[in-house]
Amino acid sequence: MYEAAIIETNCIYRLVDDKLIPDDDHWGKMPKCTLLNSKEVLVFDFGSEVYVWHGKEVTLAQRKVAFQLAKHLWNGTFDYANCDINPLDPGECNPLIPRKGQGRPDWAIFGRLTEHNET
Question: What GO molecular-function term can you cite, just one (predicted)?
Fold first, then answer.
């Protein structure tokens, strides 16, 4: 039950023409390795963790754009009001972490990953 609810909050974006476009085929699902392509940039938003992943054939300019857009996503609004679970507070035990808000908590993770150098 918990696993299914938390997976539904997963958001995956692709960098397309200097914009982050939601990947509707993988939105709200468990990410798979088949998503990764050497020529693409993906942003994985797991609520408490946001990762920018880029393939080894992505240009420096694309990487910079993706990083800036992901930072905007990180600092922007989030809304888990329609989700069964809030990935920022799955146990709903912290009244300071709302289902809707602006920016991520200080303890959340923002990371960058490069193809074949994933952690």
Answer: phosphatidylinositol-4,5-bisphosphate binding
